[in-house]
Design a protein that fits this description.
Layout (H helix, E strand, L loop, with lengths): L6 H16 L5 E4 L2 H13 L2 H4 L3 E5 L8 H10 L5 E5 L19 E4 L7 H5 L6 E4 L20 E5 H7 L6 E5 L7 H6 L8 E6 L6 H8 L5 E6 L17 H8 L7 E5 L11 H10 L13 E7 L8 E8 L5 E9 L8
Parallel strand pairs: 1-2, 2-3, 3-4, 4-5, 5-6, 6-7, 7-8, 8-9, 9-10, 10-11
Antiparallel strand pairs: 11-12, 12-13
Length: 344
């Protein structure tokens, strides 16, 4: 026998129905709390259009708290037409969180979930064109190894997983170092013969030949960002870096004949009282000495280096451009914190 509808339940139903039909219809949704999940589910239950029109969906919950996994699945079921999905969730999410979900229009997927959670989901979405993954998890071998994503043009993932995922006509790649034993070199080697034009790569201070490896793998790059990461070692973080050799760095850059933009983030000072930043930038772009040769296409250099001012814990960000006369000038500079995005 059905439960009779009470006046209180009827009024609540009426309020929710009115709220759902009065709620704005938005193509982009950003949910950052469990309460926001429940509210979206309630409104979507009474007005299906709220979920059906969503194209960009981001769910970012506190990483140090538990969450109702079923609520996340319910939100995803209410949004079948999403094209872009971002999931930032606690790492202890259930392995079956995304099982059985299918989004025919999904092209962009960013997540921090361990890769073991993603196997069936990514297998079912082989038409993805952009994929960004964070730390793999505890697996010795990445669970996504051998994944067939032949339409990917933009891939960001840890270096240890890159080799097994990189497929298709990649145009943009980001290679992250998430473990002290990670090797960017292996990931870079997989890019040989690819059509990559934009590359972001992490490196450790010990990766002295990082630029040479990039040149050998993808000589037709147009945009390159090198992001130096901290690496504990027996000795103090020594200052020997390949870019400190202005002549050698310039000669290697000259092998990237199509390079237009270079961004470098380093943990140590590059310039100082004995060598100005202008001298460094010009050395990279124009060379040094009487037989210097100007790089044929480079017109923009961004540099983040340690602030050498006494007592400073910040970093210096500088933007340099080459004008129509071939003269390099610094157009802006600022002291920034360690979490600055520094994006291409």
């Amino acid at each position: 026998m059905p439960i009779p509808s009470t006046p209180t339940r009827s009024r609540q139903h009426a309020r929710l129905t009115m709220s759902a039909h009065a709620a704005p219809i938005r193509r982009d949704i950003n949910l950052t709390s469990c309460r926001a999940l429940e509210d979206f589910i309630s409104l979507g239950h009474y007005n299906g259009n709220i979920g059906r029109v969503v194209e960009d969906l981001r769910i970012a919950l506190p990483l140090n708290q538990g969450y109702p996994a079923q609520a996340v699945r319910n939100v995803l079921r209410l949004t079948p037409n999403i094209e872009c999905l971002v999931l930032d969730l606690p790492s202890d999410s259930p392995v079956t969180l995304l099982n059985g979900l299918n989004f025919p229009n999904l092209r962009v997927f960013f997540t921090n979930l361990p890769h073991r959670v993603l196997v069936s989901f990514l297998t079912a979405h082989s038409s993805l064109t952009s994929l960004a993954l964070r730390a793999c998890g505890r697996s010795v071998i990445c669970p996504l190894n051998g994944l067939e994503l032949h339409h990917l043009v933009d891939l960001q993932c840890p270096s240890r997983c890159f080799v097994g995922i990189a497929r298709g006509p990649l145009a943009t790649a980001t290679v992250n170092l998430t473990r002290l034993t990670s090797m960017a070199n292996l990931a870079i080697q997989t890019l040989v013969a690819s059509r990559i034009h934009t590359l972001t790569v992490d490196c450790f201070p010990s990766d002295y030949d990082i630029l040479s490896r990039v040149v050998n793998a993808v000589p037709n790059l147009r945009k390159l960002k090198i992001n130096e990461k901290f690496q504990p070692q027996r000795r103090r973080n020594h200052a020997r870096r390949p870019w400190n050799d202005l002549r050698g760095w310039h000669q290697t850059l000259m092998r990237l004949r199509s390079l237009e933009e270079l961004m470098l983030r380093t943990l140590v000072p590059v310039s100082g009282p004995s060598r100005s930043e202008a001298r460094v930038v010009n050395g990279w772009a124009r060379g040094v000495g009487q037989h210097a040769v100007v790089h044929p296409s480079l017109f923009y250099i961004a540099l983040i280096q340690k602030d050498s001012a006494p007592g400073s814990t910040g970093q210096l960000l500088s933007h340099w451009f080459k004008d129509h006369m071939g003269v390099w000038g610094r157009v802006s500079g600022a002291v920034i914190g360690p979490t600055h995005s520094f994006t291409l």
